[in-house]
Amino acid sequence: MEKQIRRFASCLLLLALSACDQRQEEQGPPPPASISEYKQRIDRLAPQQRDAVFIRAIRDAGMDCQKVVGSGSSGLQFGMPSWVARCDDGRDWMIMLDKGGRAHVARREEKKG
Predict the structure, then answer these.
(1) Listed residue (62, 16, 79, 102) closest to 93, CA to CA
(2) 91 within a domain of the structure (yes/no)
(3) Which of 74, 101, 102, 113 could covalently link to 82 via disulfide, CB atoms 3.0 to 4.6 Å apart?
């Protein structure tokens, strides 16, 4: 009798654990944000917050910038939403967001002539 109770308790425990694992698999990670959601999040930021995000992107890209003193939307560049961020040294940087929400940073120079 005691053996049957243990076996029954073990089965209940396994059943409970498998139900927990199944629930986690059903929920899974949240779906990735779309590119328009990333753009909306950035556009909703206060200018100082947006500048802080952009200096992080510029520095993460290995570029030199001590402080972003201003930024603004630059429409679509290569099919990606983009912004221009100006550093305190006067250089402008183009920040483009790809579909995965990754930032691509490039030096922005004025056309001459």
Answers:
(1) 62
(2) yes
(3) 74
